[in-house]
Amino acid sequence: DSGGGGTGGGGSYGGQGGYSAVTITAGGGIYGDTNAPFAPGSGGGTDWNILGGAGGGAIRLIANDAMILDGSIVANGQDGLGGAGSGGAIYITCGTFSGGTNALLSARGGNSSSGNGGGGGGGRVVVNYGGGRLGAYELYPRDYLGSNSVTKGTGTGGDGQPGTIKWFGPSSRGSIFAVW
């Protein structure tokens, strides 16, 4: 269980959930596969019988050829009156990946609006395009102009930690690991 670890702790997934101001406990541990995330995010803890926010969902997309993103793919954690939910997972495999300036991949942690709650940890985003192999990273595909977010959620008890984003492309430029 990686949900909020105490009264109002934020949920964890790609990043640790924030602390509860009451019990000084963080959400559960970081979990999930950083190269192939399939699990949804975790919910935040309760704060004096006030439910925490739900964790973000898990989205898996497979396209044999081109994937063009002209909108948003979102698996954000829910804001909570107790602890906030963690971001979820976005896992994409495709031949080529592109998108305009309004494209967005987001698995951010939720924010806690309680005086005691912790923010949710960020989720996990992985895009494997062009037959990329593990270890062959690029920060962005050349034709992707959009933005990404696995930011931490905020909370009075404590902020969560950011999640992870990985790109696996067809060319090897060494090992680069990006966290926002």
Give me a quick take on this structure.
With 180 residues, this protein is mostly beta strands. The chain has strands at residues 58-69, 72-74, 89-99, 104-106, 124-129, 147-149, 164-168.
Task: Note the topology.
Blueprint: E1 58-69, E2 72-74, E3 89-99, E4 104-106, E5 124-129, E6 147-149, E7 164-168
Parallel strand pairs: 1-3, 2-4, 3-5, 4-6, 5-7
What does this structure look like?
There is one protein chain. The chain is mainly β. The protein has no helices and 7 strands. It has a 4-stranded parallel β-sheet, with no helix packed on it. It is elongated and about 50 Å long. The two termini are 25 Å apart. Mean pLDDT is 86; it is low at 172-178.
Q: What topology, given as strand order, has the largest sheet? A: 1-3-5-7
How far is it from the N-terminal to the C-terminal residue, by CA? 25 Å
Tally of separate helices:
0
How many E-type strands? 7
Strand content bin: 15-25%
Largest sheet: 4 strands, parallel
Average pLDDT across residues? 86
Bulk shape: elongated
The percentage helix is under 10%
How would you spell out the order of helices and strands?
EEEEEEE
SS-derived structural category: mainly beta
Q: What ranges have pLDDT less than 50 throughout 5 or more consecutive residues? A: 172-178
Radius of gyration: 16 Å
Features:
7 strands, four-stranded parallel beta sheet, single chain, three-stranded parallel beta sheet, mainly beta, 0% helix, 180 residues, elongated, 24% strand
